Amino acid sequence: MKEHRGRLTKDGIRIYEQSDFAGMLAAGALAARILDDIADHVFVGQTTGAIDGLITQMVEDAGAESATIGYKGYQHASCISVNHVVCHGIPGEKKLKDGDILNIDVTVIVDGWFGDTSRMYVAGKLPRKAERLIQVTHDALFKGIDMVKPGNTFGDIGHAIQAYVEAHRMSVVRDFCGHGLGRVFHAPPNVLHYGRPGTGAVLEEGMFFTIEPMVNLGRPETKTLADDWTAVTRDKSLSAQFEHSVGVTTDGVEIFTLSPGGKYHPTYSS
Ligand code: MF3
Ligand code: CO
Ligand code: CO
């Protein structure tokens, strides 16, 4: 039997109970801790497959489950997206080179609750242009998070992100979006990282969703490679992404996936 909690809005968005926030925080905290702990394992010569193997082990050691292994045929505990890979990079045998930037995206299930988060890392020395891209992407995510409170709309979130990114002469990817989550991985709404203020569904207390902007140094267009997963920038420009899972509270937002170590900057491991 499928478990139903709370109610659905007219837009089909689930409203969870006060007591459900604790479950989301437990799942989110584990995903965030794994992203903290993996930092020391990102270095020149390391393979993304080895990083993924460590993440698989960390999920298992925590007594949790990977949400991505077996999801639509995906076989790994993380997506690792290097340089011009926008998202859904498949871990493999390729070795990281000096100056490579990478997004590591982990989703875990703890007691049936989903925690989904991603951050940027660097192998070796962080190139100046990449550092700027990563900083803008991180700050854009928080411009979006700053808009999360009852009464604001999803368009307010998208607009805040887009305006910030484009003011820095970078572009927001349109082909992928954030999503509702909770007792499921992907649920309504589609959380767009662009838009107009005041448009879209109205935020209500008890909504759980991700915000996960992908930002390109060049043009926003992407294409998906023959493996049916790996999305890359069409113009081969560098791309970055950060993702948090959040909940709407009485008067604002709770971020479920904050780093326990206060880590987010890619150079924290070096
Ligand atoms: N974690 C990704 C997201 O942010 C989804 C990855 S699905 C996978 O929604 F199958 F590619 F792992
Ligand atoms: Co997500
Ligand atoms: Co994710």
From TrEMBL:
Positions bound to a divalent metal cation 2: 116, 179, 212, 243
GO cellular component: cytosol
Positions contributing to a divalent metal cation 1 binding: 105, 116, 243
Keyword Nucleotide-binding part of the UniProt annotation: no
Domain of life: Bacteria
InterPro entries attached to this UniProt entry: Creatinase/aminopeptidase-like, Pept_M24, Pept_M24_MAP, Pept_M24A_MAP1
Positions bound to substrate: 88, 186
Cofactor(s) needed for function: Co(2+); Zn(2+); Mn(2+); Fe(2+)
GO BP annotations, alphabetical order: proteolysis
The record's free-text note on cofactor binding: Binds 2 divalent metal cations per subunit. Has a high-affinity and a low affinity metal-binding site. The true nature of the physiological cofactor is under debate. The enzyme is active with cobalt, zinc, manganese or divalent iron ions. Most likely, methionine aminopeptidases function as mononuclear Fe(2+)-metalloproteases under physiological conditions, and the catalytically relevant metal-binding site has been assigned to the histidine-containing high-affinity site.
E.C. number(s) listed in UniProt: 3.4.11.18
SUPFAM superfamilies referenced in this protein's UniProt entry, alphabetically: Creatinase/aminopeptidase
Segments forming domain Peptidase M24: 23-249
The keyword GTP-binding is assigned to this record: no
Catalyzed reaction equations: Release of N-terminal amino acids, preferentially methionine, from peptides and arylamides
Keywords tagged on the record: Aminopeptidase, Hydrolase, Metal-binding, Protease
Biological function: Removes the N-terminal methionine from nascent proteins. The N-terminal methionine is often cleaved when the second residue in the primary sequence is small and uncharged (Met-Ala-, Cys, Gly, Pro, Ser, Thr, or Val). Requires deformylation of the N(alpha)-formylated initiator methionine before it can be hydrolyzed.
Summary of subunit composition and partner proteins: Monomer.
Similarity comment: family membership: Belongs to the peptidase M24A family. Methionine aminopeptidase type 1 subfamily.
PANTHER family cross-referenced by the UniProt entry: METHIONINE AMINOPEPTIDASE
Descriptive protein name: Methionine aminopeptidase
